[in-house]
Write a structure and sequence with these properties.
Distance between the termini: 7 Å
Radius of gyration: 12 Å
Strand content: over 45%
Order of helices and strands: EEEH
Number of helices: 1
Structural class: mainly beta
Oligomer: single chain
Helix content: 10-25%
Length: 54
């Protein structure tokens, strides 16, 4: 399943190195109850074309 929403997350090594990254039209691919992929919706959708979108 792909959840379509605005997304924001921290990337980097530890709190002093972290920076925020986000997408106003993001996609979160959930597989077996875990986040398996995230990014701009169009890119996530292209990588998982058969997934249901919510």
């Amino acid at each position: 399943m792909i959840l379509r929403a605005s997304l924001l997350h921290a990337v980097g090594e530890g709190p002093l190195e972290a920076r925020l990254e986000g997408w106003s039209d993001g996609g979160l691919f959930i597989e077996s109850g875990r986040i398996a992929d995230a990014g701009p919706f169009a890119e996530v959708r292209a990588r998982h074309p058969g997934a249901m979108v919510r």
